[in-house]
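Lines hold sequence, tokenised fold; shown next:
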Amino acid sequence: MTTAQHRPFETLTGDFFGYENQLDEAERAIVMRVREFLRTEVEPIANEQWSRGEFPHRLIDGFARLDIAGLPYDGLAAHRGSRLLTGFLALEICRADPSVNTFYGVHSGLAMGSIQRCGSAEQRDRWLPHMARMTKIGAFALTEPHGGSDVAGGLETTARRDGDRWILNGHKKWIGNATFADLVVVWARDEADHHVKGFVVDKGTPGFVPHKIEGKIALRAVENADILLQDCVVPEENRLQNANTFRDTSDVLRLTRGGVAWGSVGCMMAAYELALVYAREREQFGRPIAKFQLVQDHLATMAGHVTSSLALVTGLARLQDAGINQDEHSALAKSVVTTRMRETVALAREVFGGNGILLENDVARYFADAEALYSYEGTREINQLIVGRSITGMSAFV
């Protein structure tokens, strides 16, 4: 029996201050329903899918029945979700499997968020109901081989208007879900005005060629793709009508970056909970290692990181629900939380000793996956500079 099978279900051991109690009764019911699905359907297969480097497509129908993909958006789910609720859902899913949470975040956050914020009313009606039911899966293609942190100024993928259609050419990298997505939001620079615009590319469009990235050491169950765009024709009706500059792209990233922070809390919380169970059960020198002072120091440090990070993302959710969240707020949360996560998963693996490198003990997966969460949607350094610009009034990017 692995340590994951001992993990608590009804309450979160890692929520030391009880932040989950801030959810109302209806929201908590949604969280508990999702938690049960993750416990019974996701956790038992997480290590196998990670080891094989394959996404568990059979889970999509189950996620669809949870009716959570449309929670942040009006009229798409039975219950319009607060940012506190959607944050706790990201925490829950990442606590079960960071790879599955990345799939969900790309679809529900980046792809649906792009259409919600940058699409016309007709485009929202055309795509979002299908995406909320998860009968169409989305992806988000922004990052490029030469454009990661500098993608705003260095975006190389081009879009050229030709009558009532656009011709896309370029190369995208690290695009989650893109090997199987039904539609991909592709960001490209308009050759005419040099501004970044968004386009929805349907699966099977000629000139759109995704290749699965192999050899990853983190988020192995996420099917990231390199995408080659060669004279890819997209109709004008598929151009996101309200995506006219990179500022519009940034509006999407501002919200989803907060979601990464929430997921990172889930990742470190899982590692902490696993270490706590192991420390109580593992005996050395005739007693459980949880009785040793240095092990308790590790556990208390982890508990502090999880608790303070949960406080930070809860505050961020309140700003988002009030409509006053700014780039620097999301950036600070992402930077601080992922840094604490990195230390927490390392301490958790250390509590396991040599057993911590065995996939069967689960903590190794969180230890590896944390590296991807630490880097994507803005590295620590980039997010620190966003915060620094805000508090000093001076940019240090160049």
Notes: The chain has three domains: 3-132, 138-238, 246-392.
